[in-house]
Amino acid sequence: MMAWRHFALVGFFLLAGMGLVVRVVYLNVTERQFLIDQGERRSIRAEAIPAYRGVVYDRFGEPLAVSTPAAAIWTDPKSGFLDDAGIVAVTNGLGIDAKVLRHKLASNAGRGFMYIQRGVGWEDAQALRALNLAGLEFNTEYRRFYPAGETTAHVVGVTNIDDAGLEGIELSFNEMLRGVPGKKIVLRDRPGNTIKDLEYVNAPRFGSDLVLSIDLRLQFLAYRELKAAVESHRATSGSLVMLDVASGEILALVNQPSYNPNEAASRSTRGMRNRAVTDTYEPGSTIKPFTVLAALESGKFRRDTQIHTAPGYFHVRTKLVQDPVNRGTISLETVLKKSSQVGIAKVALELEDRAVFDVLSRAGIGEYVGSGLPGGAAGMLTEAGLKNPVVRATLAYGYGLAVTPLQLARAYLCLATNGIRLPVSILRQDGAPQGDRVFDEASVREVVSMMEGVTDAGGTAPKARIEGFRVAGKTGTVRKVGRFGYDDERHVAWFAGMAPASDPRIVAVVLINEPKGDARGGGAVAAPVFGRVMARTLHLLGIPPDDAGLQLARAH
After folding, report:
1. For residue 401, which of 430, 426, 378, 424 has the smallest C-alpha distance?
2. What is the pLDDT of residue 450?
3. Cα–Cα distance for residue pair 190/525, rounded to 1 Å
4. Cα–Cα distance, 285 to 398 (Å, whole number)
5. Which of 129, 315, 439, 529 is the right S-S partner for 419, CB 3.0 to 4.6 Å?
């Protein structure tokens, strides 16, 4: 009886063993490829190799945006490998709330992948990696660092967590900067740890570097002075644009308020808006030099032509145009120097209906600048209503149209180049670009000469004067539109100008939006910023003085 049971049990195990052998042979012969595929699916993965984003430099090679190594830390919530001790270690190392991480893990318990934190600094990531925590995985990536911080924030912009451009140059030149990630095949164990790199499929293609026209020295100078002016006048905002006359390059472009691109918490819609490019304002009296240019082009006026402005006001249909005082009969040059509304309106009404409009159009008012910065506005300049004398009169002193600070700077560039319209660029140019002549050289030289009177002691902007240099420019003080029409309590203060006036090298436009306090005009608020920034700029660039009177005094 016992022998029978023994042989039966042995026979059973022999049959079972033979069955297993047959099954293994069968699977290896008929299901071999299926089994290999299933094994590879569980252990072989394709992994991206991050591409290094191109560096952004200023015109002299100072880095404005660089990529630094970082880590993306993740786990597999479904596996449950990251235990409570690991959670405490991770939260201590990253400075995050343990309760938040536990809740996040619980919410994603059915998923096989979850980021714990991205963009972790390399040193912090290495410290966590050294703990060798089960279930904690690391992917190498890059995060953007901006050495100049908020000084260049509106020009350079920022990237998002995936290293794609969101604002500024980072956005408009994203395709050039970002590069293409590579790809490799890796072998992983069951917890997901990479054991071996099996194959490199594609090498990453790094992004191209970019050299901007910005001079970081001038950018910092402009930012400092603009910020001080906005704060001291308790203004809503401000912008400053500086152009190189020879090339049309943007040497400095700053706004207030700004933000720190290295700190996500400081990014707000208000602070991130590049107001010099996107926001439009009525330019006010900064348009008067172009009205004077239209008058000279007509042949009806010379700089000494007398304009009757008494008694300091007059009506254009139902519109009252007035000066703060009765200036009597004054020359066209004095009209510009004193910024007479009555005088400039009377001049415009003597011209052809389209005369002032055509001059402004040739200067680029109402057109996109195309500088390379994203979000640029075209402004507004319309020929509708030019038959109406009220429209022509108000257009002559800068109402009924809208410009951005950058757009006005480009228009003044046409004056600084003696009538040649140049393209404006945020990228460094290797040579002088080809421009188009839009104004007669002699007429433009005459206007620029007349604009020097604005910064004389008797002009509207003596605070824009620079010792040793002749300065040509124009103030503008514009009432803003409110709920019930133009508001006498809200203003935009402008100053636009160039130096040295004898041979302009730099054009700059300053805008202070809604200054508060006793000083609200362009001559008192914006002109001093121009004077301080331009004086230091001329010194830094080594531009020699052109004030013959001062040079003669120094010689003696």
Report:
1. 378
2. 97
3. 69
4. 5
5. 439
The average confidence (pLDDT) of the chain is 88
Of how many residues is the chain composed? 556
Domains in the chain: boundaries: 51-211, 216-261+269-555
CATH of 216-261+269-555 among 3.30.460.10, 3.30.1380.10, 3.40.710.10, 3.40.1010.10 = 3.40.710.10
- Cβ(157)–Cβ(171) under 8 Å? yes
Q: Residue 20: what residue type?
A: L
Q: Which of 285, 371, 425, 443 is an active site residue?
A: 285
Residue matched to tokens 């926001």: 279
Give the pLDDT score at 24: 63
Describe the crossing of helices 216-232 and 527-540 by its angle, rounded to 10 degrees: 160
What secondary structure letter does DSSP report for 51? Answer: P
> Can 285 be counted among the known catalytic residues?
yes
Residue with tokens 């590879």: 40
Residue 346, phi then psi, degrees to nearest 5: -65, -35
Mean pLDDT score, 268-290: 93
Positive or negative, the CA dihedral 393, 394, 397, 402 is negative
Q: What percent of the chain has pLDDT over 90?
A: 63
Q: What is the pLDDT of residue 35?
A: 46
Report the distance separating Cα 295 and Cα 288, nearest Å: 11
Only one residue has tokens 């080809």, namely 434
pTM here?
Answer: 0.86
Distances (CA, A) of 505 to 349, 410, 418, 430, 537: 34, 14, 12, 17, 10
- Would strands 313-316 and 306-308 be described as parallel, antiparallel, or unpaired? unpaired
Q: For 61-92, how does the pLDDT look when each residue is reduced to its tens digit (9 = 90+)?
A: 999 999 988 888 888 787 767 777 777 888 88
CB atoms within 10 A of CB 467: 9
Q: What is the 3-state secondary structure (H, E, C) of 154-170?
A: HHHCCECCCCCECCHHH
Q: What is the pLDDT of residue 389?
A: 96
User: What would the CATH number be for the domain defined by 51-211?
Assistant: 3.90.1310.10
